[in-house]
Design goal:
Length: about 400
């Protein structure tokens, strides 16, 4: 028997655990069928209870806001150092050297986090506003000139790709590896299904590119990359650690904002009243982006591992268990949100877990929000109408939710 089955058996014998037996689902939360429309299933998962098990992977799951938030904010019990994907680093070798922020716990985590917090601080991000704003306006002008375009390829991907790699200080050559590398990393958090295995099979050139570009000599003299490496000179980190921290920027800094901008764009194209509201008040752009993150949750899930015995909703979880957090379900939990399935650009979005919560909460969130705010502001100021002209095509990834194509017309 697996630990989970043993516990279920113990509970049915009236042993320790919750007053009621732990609910189980045979859902595969990493299947194409689920990715197509996860929201009705999210509701079923929330209704199962505060904690459930997923028999397909012998793991635990949380889908209600309260429990997702609890797991995110209790790192001593729900640790990251055994990986935030399905793979338990205590039992299997990670596909790449672990991230010094994402896949560590305090105190190691805090040392690395401090460097990135400073590099991505409010003051540092403020300095980018002018150039990011000019790029957003150029992008929207170009798309207005074309009239018809792909909202994902030509906008949600093109805009971050036109600003973020330069902000890091990457050379112009080889940038086509960035999105495939991120797609790989986000698929790798999932189980060994076709998405993960195919991505790993094609990984070599993308990994080689990222590994090489993270070195100090390959980064511009100014930019996030150089600023990370400057922490070597002051003795805060080693040069090997600096390379890995730049890798974190490249892994987490692009595909996330691509899908965040894609989410807001897809919402604004579908919900005409919200587009009208944004046009009449472009100052709402930053919140329209944030609400897109809550509504679509571009980062749908990731895991923690119990570092010690834990308790959720009256159920005991043994040490060494994987707990899957359904961020997308928490962000639409009716226990927390009014009209959760409505995209409302005036909503008070604070508290959503689309950027996580607690000590690991997205360190690049100010860069993401800047990009989101500026591209939506440029659209609101310059564009009268957005129309979907063809069938949106969904992208399938073990972690990220978004589209691969969104045919649009603007005027
Ligand atoms: C990915 C890294 C949603 C998160 C899992 C995004 C993420 C954050 C950090 C890293 C990768 O440090 O490589």
């Amino acid at each position: 028997m697996t630990p989970l089955q043993e516990q279920a058996a113990a509970e049915s014998r009236g042993g320790r655990g919750g007053a009621s037996p732990l609910p189980t689902s045979d859902l595969d939360p990493f299947s194409i069928e689920f990715f197509k429309d996860p929201f009705p299933v999210h509701e079923e998962l929330r209704e199962l209870g505060p904690l459930f098990s997923l028999s397909k992977y012998d793991i635990y799951g949380v889908a209600r806001y309260e429990q997702v938030h609890h797991v995110l904010t209790n790192w001593q019990t729900f640790c990251s150092s055994r990986g935030v994907g399905l793979a338990d680093f205590a039992k299997e070798k990670p596909w790449r050297p672990p991230s010094l922020v994402l896949e560590k716990d305090p105190p190691e985590h805090d040392r690395a986090r401090k460097i990135l917090s400073k590099v991505l601080s409010p003051v540092a991000v403020k300095r980018l506003r002018q150039s990011f704003e000019a790029a957003a306006e150029r992008k929207v002008d170009e798309l207005l000139g074309r009239g018809r375009f792909d909202g994902i390829k030509d906008l949600a991907e093109a805009y971050p790709m036109s600003v973020f790699p330069d902000a890091v200080g990457l050379a112009p050559e080889g940038r086509e590896h960035l999105l495939p590398y991120a797609g790989l990393a986000f698929n790798a958090f999932g189980p060994p299904n076709e998405l993960r295995e195919q991505a790993i099979a094609k990984a070599t050139p993308h990994v080689a590119y990222v590994t090489e570009q993270c070195r100090r000599q390959n980064l511009a003299e100014e930019g996030f990359g150089a600023e990370v490496h400057a922490a070597v000179d002051t003795g805060q980190i080693t040069s090997d650690e600096a390379v890995l921290l730049v890798r974190s920027l490249l892994t987490a800094g692009i595909d996330t904002t691509v899908n965040g901008i894609g989410a807001a764009l897809y919402c604004l194209a579908r919900f005409e009243d919200q587009w009208t509201a944004l046009r009449s008040e472009p100052q709402l752009a930053r919140n329209a982006f944030e609400e897109g993150i809550r509504f679509e949750s571009p980062v749908q899930t990731f895991f923690r591992t119990t570092a010690r015995e834990a308790e959720i909703g009256g159920h005991v979880i043994p040490e060494g268990s994987k707990v899957l957090m359904f961020l997308g379900a928490a962000n639409r939990d009716g226990r927390k949100w009014t009209l959760p399935d409505h995209y409302d650009i005036r909503r008070v979005t604070s508290g959503h877990v689309g950027f996580g919560a607690g000590i690991h909460m997205c360190v690049g969130q100010l860069v993401a929000r800047l990009e989101g705010e500026l591209i939506l502001t440029a659209l609101a100021r310059k564009v009268k109408r957005i129309r979907i002209t063809g069938e949106p095509i969904r992208a399938f990834n073990n972690t990220l939710r978004g589209l691969t194509s969104l045919p649009l017309e603007i005027d």
